[in-house]
Structure prediction request, 428 residues.
Amino acid sequence: MRQSSIFFLFYFFTLPIYGQARTDTYLANLLNTNTSPIFRQVMQQPEKYRLQIIYTQINRDKANRPSFTNYYFRVDSTDYFNPASTVKLPLALLSLEKLNLLNKPQVTKFTAMQFDSAFSGQTKEWTDQTAQSGYPSVAHLIRKAFLVSENDPYSRMYEFVGQQQINRSLHAKGYPDTRITHRFVRMTADENRHTNPVRFIAADGTLLYTQPAAYNTDPFDFRRPARLGKGYYVRDSLVKQPFDFTTRNKLPLESLQQILQSALFPESVSEKQRFNLTANDYQFIYQYLSQAPGETNYPKYDGQKFYDSYAKFFFRDSLHHLPDGLRVFNKVGWAYGFLTDASYVADFRNKVEYMLTAVIYANSDEILNDDKYEYDTVGWPFLYQLGQTIYQHELRRKRAYKPNLSRFKVRYEKRQEDDRPVVTEVDN
Prediction:
């Protein structure tokens, strides 16, 4: 019996170990075809790497209407992972939705906004020199959150939407197991319940709209503990007990995949799951989920450091380029040893499309906050191999009808040559 077959049998005879985790034979067999050493290493110990994968096949009918079939590997909403920057996706969608619900035509995603402070820990942000206008805006926050996954824009969107509205909205849209509790700066639980006053101003400084400070009175459900690892560092001191994620952000993998699907294919989900976005909002989202940092004028990111596949984990190889004619509409996250990517892949040259969402935990010493995670040696190489396994399969897969992908054809920017300094360092 071949080694790959041995692994396949071993995994399925030991399935009860993983409790309620869902695994489909179709996907397990497909993953079993990859013989890369790093891929085999992870696949032979999926519980150690807290691996979860969702592969979504998209098939079109004669009228180009898509249907979606999800295949799972170890997917379990009770198996906690830190979602890190993937939470920037729902925050961006909720920020656009809030603007539309304000119903103030003068206040758009491009309108200049300013953040004041009104409670302990809060900070002001009145200008942004990386923006063409010199001011923050919802559009510019989303650009920075998507292109290279900057952290401050997430915190500002959190402050604009408000902790209470974020969670109420996500729960109402059918994601009751999500939990957004904090900014990406060090603050207490009570400080995170308070969000800043925000104002929108016209180009001449005229006040267009002001939003007062807010406080979330809704309780969170922290009954399910989430403690990981053998120890963690607090500054230079090692605490020899598991790190407690019980009150941290939570975004289960299936919810993340569904939120991305709802943003790209809103008609494929129920009305209550859709975000209240305009046609222009959708085009904006499509552009900045898939545009390369080096194509972007504002912010002017260093295209060498923030290369095309920088935030495209399933195509992040040593060449740093995506295949010709292919775009990835996605959101990634990395923190505490977890690497996550939720992607929609559109290959315009070969007429191929699919979704792939996965998380891996690359932290073999089980110590958190020590900056000794195996992102480079295990995490990213594995996700690249996973991406190639699914992509090559999709290139071969027979379809009754080839997709018309014109909906996702985006007019991307062309970097202008000017004397502005490039952005080389960001907090992400």
